[in-house]
Task: structure prediction
Amino acid sequence: MPISLSTTMKPRTIVGLIGGAVLIFILILAATSASYVVEPGNRGVQVTLGKVSSEFKPEGFGFKMPFITTVVPQAIRQQTAKMRADCYSSDLQQVKIDVRLLYRVPQASVVTIYRDYAGDPFDTLIRPRVAEALNEVTASRTAELIVKKREEVKSMALQSARRKVGDLLVIEDVVLENIDLTNALEAAIEAKMVQEQEAARSRFAQQQAQIEANTAVIKARGEAESIVLRGKALRENPSVLELQVIEHWDGITPLVVGPGATGANMMLPLGDFTTGAKPVQKEEKP
Result:
């Protein structure tokens, strides 16, 4: 006759086995709950029975009180977020600006932000302050200047937003991706810019024409002065003209040698006056 296991084991033994299994499970669970890991680019905020520790946990592995302590990760790496700001210019035109923000949470602020501000830091702290900064900057400029000087608008809005946020968060950069105006306003601004470009081209053409005219006057004045100087030099030195004639003489006997209008001697080539033939050119020897 087979013997049943339940009949051979005493109730106290069964209870002891069950208790041992439960104890082992609790120990495993406690060991798992007593450790934590903070991933790279994050810092941990320790919360014990609802109380937030003033010191953050660095990245890496660590131990904590099981069951009663939790470590909440908070990102400190640079993050990117988008937003759209509805603004009004000084001439009461609606301007919609698409903004891309680069920001990060300094590790010294992770505990303060977790304890004092609910929700995502961007929605809670950055978005409203950047929107306020953009409204302040655009309110002091016309819609045309906002479009033309968007880099200046961006720089001033970034400085204002940084002052409003303070040291709690770091706003690395603000990028104005797009500026939307009404269709009528965009057409008016475009037409004005075309007119300004045409006016600039006309001014350039006038300046170029004036420069060319001044250059022509200076050149003519120089040529006139050169002629006067050459005439004076010939009157004072008649032999210069004779030297030039000799240098350019082709070897043909001159027709006339006599004083010209300037007092210098003039020489003309001798031709055939009876037949009207031209002077014979001297042949060069090979």
Summary: Helices lie at 5-8, 11-33, 110-116, 121-138, 143-148, 150-165, 183-236, 239-247.
